[in-house]
Structures are given as C-alpha cells and as structure tokens.
C-alpha cells in the first residue's frame, strides 16, 4: 500500500467540479485582483472566525511581514518568539528591522513556554510573536497576561491554525493581529499561495488594506512603503468553495487523529502532544515524539509511507541568523524536538485501512528494533 503524506486527490473527487465551475466564472468575469470574489471570501472568514476584519494577502509570510509593519515598532526593538517554528515566524521580525529574542518551548506542547517569557523582557521589548503550532494555539491565558502586564503587543502567527480555538476565541484573534496561510496543504488550502491578516482593530485593518497595495490609499498616492500583496480572485473563489466543507473536514481530521491514538497509545516509544484543556485543536499535522525517529522514517518509506519533519533545524541555529549570537545548546528542548518529532500522514480522504497500515508498520518497526 502507498500512503502519501498529503494529497488533494480526494477533495478533488468530492467537490472539484464546483471549483472548476467557479474558476470558469472568474475567468469569464475578467476580475483577477481585489474585487467581489475577494471581498466575499473575506466576509466569509470574518463570519467563520468572528473577526471584525479579514484582509486577503498573497501568502502567510507576507501577512506576517505586513502585520509587523502595521504595528510601527521602532527599528532595533525586540520581539519575543519561539525558536521552533517555520522560518517566516522569525524572518518577518528581521525583515522589519527588529530583533528576534527566542524563548525555549514547552516539551509537551512544543509551543513557546510562556513561563519563560518574562525573564527575556527588558526596556527594548515591544511585542510577542506567538505561534500556534502542532495542532493547537499557544497558551493565551498566560501570554495575554504577560502582554498586558508589560504593555506588549501580540502578533499571532496562526498560519497553521485555521479553525483552532483558545476557549471561545478563534486562533488569529487571541492577540492584537493574527494571520493565516492558505498554502495548499493547510487545513484551508488554496491551489497556490495565499494568506490573510485578521484583527478586531479598525486602524490596523485599514493600514493593512493600504499596505497590500503598495501603501497607496488613493491610487498613485503612497502613504506608506508597502508591497503588492493581494489574495487573488481565483484563489479567493477556490477558498470560498472549500470553506463550505471546512467544519466537516476538521471533524474528519479529528477522526483520523482518534484512530491513530487508539492504535498507538500503548506503544511506549511514541508520544502524542499534550493538548491544553482550553484548546480546541485541529489536526492539520500530527507530530509525534518517537524513539529512533530517523530509522523509523526510513522503515516507513520502505513500506510506501511518506512522513515529514517539522522542523529539522531550529531558528537560533540558522546560518542567516548567526548575528543574533545564539549557539547550539541554547534551547535544548527545541533542539531535541528537531531530532525526535515525526509528522505522520493526515489528509482529507485518508481511509481507515491506510491509518491501520501506518500504525501496523510503526508497531512492526519497534517490534523488530526491540528484538535486536
Ligand atoms: C507557522 C507558519 N508561519 C508562517 C508560514 C508562512 O506561510 P506561507 O507559506 O503561506 O507564506 C507558515 C507556512 O507554512 C507556517 O507554518
């Protein structure tokens, strides 16, 4: 049996024809940039998340860069973040002329450890860029309190967190400004790049809308130095259709996760992430801590099963951030996770037989390994 890490094949079988019809309509309309399709999709995301404002941009990475630019933090100031995330969570800070200050992660959730944030705060600290990763939001009870106590802004990188919640609050709205990525593999994925900024703050929303058109409120009159970054009409129309199925698909992801847990919970070499009581997770990816990770991955590959590693190298050890002055050993938990987390396949349409097969192969690997 072959089990891919991700495929959109089953979604295409289910509702690809509606998407093709919609694409045809957009092509016939001739409106590809901004316009009604985007407005309607933004409105639908506002309704879905409860956000006052949703602003479509070209990618999650752009959404992060523009969100930080929008906050107007003076150059050289510090932004606290996790060293264990996708590159864009840190690069957006540097691209805005700011200094990332890393805080170690929690070994059970793999997200930033909020208890360690206060010791990194000083007179130069202006914001916390928290990342909602590994199926759940970061701990916003603690992060919000710290931000409040020290008068810091929160930028929420909820690129992977569409549909997740902290209490009653949708991921993306737990801080001052939040973002989504619509990269094709995401829970709500486009057929190309796409992203969004969401916020309840009217001023930030207005500024982001201006920044995404080269900083011009009125055409050819540039108030800010922005960039060209819009979610295009074709992607917005595709995402609108996919949004109709999102609740059902989130449930389907949960069923896949439940089947993995049922099959693997007694395997002592495998550990599932601990979920905060207040979090409503979405199983966008299922990262498990596992023993002999690389050998297991190789074994699964031989059995026709694709897996992935998020993330193989922490941010404080990236060559381009060398000037920040960090070194190996500075964040031992993050570094250890780089060598022990394995992302198992989770995709819409994944059959029970496939999950069973993956689990059986994992069991077989540990059985063989323990015999050696
Ligand atoms: C945590 C995180 N932040 C930011 C991004 C950037 O999003 P995009 O790929 O849409 O630019 C991603 C994308 O994978 C992500 O996982």
What does this structure look like?
- There is one protein chain.
- With 372 residues, this protein is of the alpha/beta class.
- The chain folds into 2 domains: 9-103 and 112-243, Aspartate Aminotransferase, domain 2 (3-Layer(aba) Sandwich); 246-371, Alpha-Beta Complex (Aspartate Aminotransferase, domain 1), CATH 3.90.1150.
- The protein contains 11 helices and 15 strands.
- It has helices at 9-29, 36-49, 60-71, 88-95, 140-150, 202-211, 233-243, 246-264, 293-302, 332-340, 352-371, and strands at residues 53-57, 78-81, 99-102, 125-131, 153-157, 165-166, 169-170, 177-181, 195-199, 216-218, 221-222, 270-271, 279-280, 286-290, 341-344.
- The chain has a 7-stranded mixed sheet with strand order 1-9-8-5-4-2-3, sandwiched between helices.
- Helix 3 runs parallel beside helix 4 and helix 3 crosses helix 6 (202-211).
- The longest helix has 21 residues, at 9-29.
- It is globular.
- The structure holds pyridoxal-5'-phosphate.
- Pyridoxal-5'-phosphate binds at residues 59-61, 85-86, 88-89, 131, 133, 157, 159-160, 181, 183, 193, 195.
